[in-house]
Amino acid sequence: MDEDAFNMAVRKFLKEVGVTSQREIERIVREHKVDSGRLKLRMALTAEGTPLNHIVETEIDIR
To answer: Which of 12, 15, 61 lies closest to 39 in space, CA to CA?
Structure first.
């Protein structure tokens, strides 16, 4: 495995996830589709054909 190529591919994926996720969070808040002043977020990372199932949860204040 080429470590540099692998590292760059992972970084590219994470950048895409970060940018698109931020856009979606901002869109949902702008469209006022949040019932309270807090937004509960949950991100699931899976990899097809592997047992990977990593969950990240947080809550952010949007007031």
So the answer is: 61
